[in-house]
User: What shape does this take?
Amino acid sequence: MTAKVTVVDHPLVQHKLTLLRRREASTAEFRKLLREIGLFLGYEALRDLPLGKIQIETPVCPMEAPVLAGKKLTFISVLRAGDGLLGPMLDLVPSARVGQIGLARNEETLKPEKYFFKVPKDTSARVNVVLDPMLATGNSAVRAVQEIKDAGALDVRFVCLLAAPEGIKTFTEAHPDVPVVTASIDEKLNEKAYIVPGLGDAGDRIFGTKGV
Assistant: This one.
């Protein structure tokens, strides 16, 4: 089984991504553009949610109309950069539960180390969407999703802004059952494990802290 990887190539997404990548984009611009792109990513990640029918009345007549049915949602942010995608996801589904996973990358080994984990208890009954803007080496994403699965999750999706081919390979080999939604698969990783051409450090650009 091979994981499904979806690149959201809508012209508006690609245009906004170009604006967001620019070195001169301010913190405010970066946040705004990330939120706008995040909405498109969320729509794609949730494309297959089941629908039911309810009876309503429009100003013209009664009708049977579609509404979300089935499993409830949890959005799980990989701290801290994942919080940049959490806002637009909650704009789409304000009633969703929220989880957080704290993973710090060891700069020598490039491996993730967990320092925080808090998710709803009923993960097995929910669609769990893991959020992290950058899928670089793939190590943090693999660890985050494994933590979610270990907590009982059966339906897991992964949403990122950018991905490197190396990260896609690592992630899909580790979790072939987890679909990935991204706005771009970039060229490669550099010697510091940053995505090229990328956009720098997403967390630093979201929060206005020192970049690369």
Observations:
- The longest strand covers residues 97-105.
- The chain has one domain: 5-207.
- The chain has a mean pLDDT of 92.
- Residues 5-207 form a domain with the Rossmann fold fold (CATH 3.40.50.2020).
